[in-house]
Amino acid sequence: MEVDTRLLRRLAVARGDEPADLVLAGGRVVNVFDGRVEELDVAVCEGMVVGLGRYQGRRRMELGGAYLCPGFIEGHLHIESTLLTPAELARVVAPRGTALVIADPHEIANVMGLAGVRAMIQASRGLPVRFLFNAPSCVPATGLETAGAELGPAAVAEMAGWEGILGLAEVMNFPAAVAGDPEVLAKISAFPGRPIDGHAPLLGGRALNAYLTAGPQSDHECTQPQEAAEKLARGMWLMIRQGTSAHDLAHLVPVVNRYSERRCLLVSDDRHPHTLAREGHLDDLLRRAVAASLDAVSALRMVTLNPARRFGLSGWGAVAPGYVADLVVVEDLEGFRVRKVFQAGRLVAEEGELVVEAGGGFDPAARHTMRIAALEPECFVLPLAGRRVRVIELVPGQLLTRQAVEDAPQDEGRLAADPARDLARLVVIERHTASGRVGQGLLRGLGLTTGALASSVAHDSHNLVAAAADDASLLTAARRVAEMGGGLCVARGEKVLAELPLPLAGLMSDRDLAAVLNQSEELRRAAARVCRLPEPFMALAFVCLPVIPELKLTDRGLVDVDAFRLVPLFLDA
Known about the structure:
alpha/beta; Urease, subunit C, domain 1; 3 domains; elongated
């Protein structure tokens, strides 16, 4: 039996018989196993940590008393929600200390099916951040919407054999899982003994027991401490989320204690580019967790060892012999200012700048995916069919919505917006088959006083969603998104105020961060001229997701998520 020569060399270095490739000296090593901080040299050989103590090396780097930590691991992220390609995302987050991202590509899968997942995996190879994926489990998320693809049990089972696929991504159709739907259970059974992520907002009691019995093991949708505590007590991994729109960290940190800590992760889920640029990635979550009184080493475990253990990544998430030398040097354990980042022992970022080349490009098949029937004024005309209407009401800082009931705003017998009552027209236009289908409703919480917002980012089926204070602005914004091949738009009357093209599946830009930030800033300024909500596009993207309570809108109509069925807009029709 032939022994790996690289292993033999690592052993020689570990014993002190040969010099290491790299010795990181003069640093304070954070031990995520026992919580201590140790002043030790760290020897790296062939991309692995092989020893802690006193070592000689071909190259020696002094850390000057800075803290040496494991590379940060993102346990749940949708790359598409950053609006960036994997290569550009890596350029942004690698200098922030992110070493590994576990992504769920269900956004692009809802547009392009298996081809989209393949394209995402291919575009993620050879970058200064490692990307691993979970196979999308719910494409579409429900049968109450129209997606660009449908991935049944056979397609999900096929992905289980692909390189780069760890497990099964969030099982969002939790009512079907609880009820024992054969198709959902077949998808789960394709990943025996492998990670299966959950998605079960507000689920508890016997329904939670049934969901766990079906197979999901984690949840990133907790918003209340008691909900999180129950799920931890039943054995779930708790993913504490802090994204651009969903701000759950401060609410959930109190449930982290010396018993539950090892089952908790800090995750982003959905982060827009301006949040990444201005606040950071996992470094930002670490700062927030410590500011919320969480012990610094405990917080570090939640972005290193814990996600590695949750996803079965042996040899990741610690600075220890036999572990991959993905390492981060930070100035302190409060501000977590990143000074150096190593990927398998190779310096990839220093003082906030990438020092290696990152790849680029994306499958051209992702372009020209917007298939929309001609948009005319009559597409949005809805005669009144009653005096009272259901209204989707945003919940600040959360993805949950409430269901309200109001007197129907109208103009000459047709449904209209009513800015005085903060009631915006809301439409979802089917964009995959040019069916001409339009779901209509009303939305409160944007603070939309004039104009319209439109977007092809509309979770999870990514039809075209628009909110408007008047029909002329609605038509202008929706048409412009269709013309761009996808993107975000602010319009007023017949004038486009700002836009951000997203030509890759209608979800991602093909430009670099600087260009995206510039366009995003123009979009934000324009949005501030027409509405009061600070992050209106992120909120708008989630009013279409019919697996998060209470009331949502798809191209097929209003969805009562708790009842899991379509309901009429007019109550007294």
